[in-house]
Amino acid sequence: MSVGSSNARTYLDRSDARPVDPVLLPLRDAEFTTTTLGGIFSALHDAGPDSWGRFLIERLYGPQRELGYLLLAAGERTGTLDFSMARETSPPESRVLNGIEELAHAARAVRAAEGNGEIPQEFVQLLACGTSNGGARPKFTLFHQGELWIAKLPSGKDFLQYPSMPLRECAALDLAARCGIEVPEHHLVDARGVPALLVRRFDRRGRERLPYASARTVAWSNPEVMRYSYMASYTGLSQELARWIRNPTEDRRSLYERIVFNAATGNGDDHDANHGLVLDRPEYGYRLAPLFDPVASTDLPAKDLAMAFGEDGRRISSHNLLSRPGQFGLDREHAEDLLKRIGATVARCWRETLLTLGADQRQVDRLASWFAFADKLAGTESNP
Ligand SMILES: Nc1ncnc2c1ncn2[C@@H]1O[C@H](COP(=O)(O)OP(=O)(O)OP(=O)(O)O)[C@@H](O)[C@H]1O
Ligand SMILES: [Mg+2]
Could you tell me if the CB of 292 is within 6 A of ligand 1? Predict the structure, then answer.
């Protein structure tokens, strides 16, 4: 962990020391171990690569042991943590892409990495910039107009019958904003003919790095959950928020809104690494990070969400959505209103949102089944 400019000899001595995981890793002079997640605490994984970064590391340097992925990730890590092998060794300096021109080169490098051939030398440094980003899809951290953004690119594996993934993701973020859900600043750019979605990093404020914890870390920080559950649930997450957030009432409602939005847009990729907490207002403590990654790169809409939220588990249905609103601090009437409001907004706006961003009409038509459930929600009262 970086000790920064403080004169304290150890992190624990600092007056502003803060636990990386307040539940599993409290501030104490002790050694903590875990046998889950490859022997590495989830809070540390949050600052390391997921399948995309691991894939790049393997393409560039070959397969690694678990720790190797954390140490070799060279990009701008999520949250505040960096890693090195010893207290005396500084973590490697992080590198980001600089400007749209470099992003366009990186898009070509992605094509090379996704292919089977050897990676040309000119792409090695560029690809190294993407090694610390989480998630499975091609992406880099980009410095653009004085800010850090996550730049998300198409993949050679994407389904071509639909609008490009960056465009669809941009549309989903726009739609979520229209539903009153907080989203990061975002827009599409053209990287020399390749569409890229830029999403402003919510774990940065200027040069300051802000603490981040994924919903996986929050859910799994309770040892009871680790023992008895294989998968985080929205209901469990809603409960666990109380250990991280002083007053989680608002955040629980926001979580419920996201469940409804994901159902309305057929997004079943809402797993526990696609939600998180950010500490951007120290006076309040952690809060739910703005919505990110609200689209699945599957060929069909989901029938189930990724995490359970009602008495029928993960199943997308009005009945299931309305079965346990109390777990999210809502009464039934309020939940019904939300279903109607979000359903009606999505049903009314999805086509226009995609078309405004420049999507092709025929490709848009093929997405109709993804938004069919929104129509049902819009008339929830007559169709419980
Ligand atoms: N705007 C953002 N600011 C800071 N961190 C972000 C932002 N968006 C995403 N992240 C982090 O980067 C990770 C990967 O991003 P994202 O989920 O968008 O990628 P993905 O490849 O589409 O994911 P998946 O594998 O779920 O499809 C997230 O899990 C989160 O930790
Ligand atoms: Mg994701």
Answer: yes
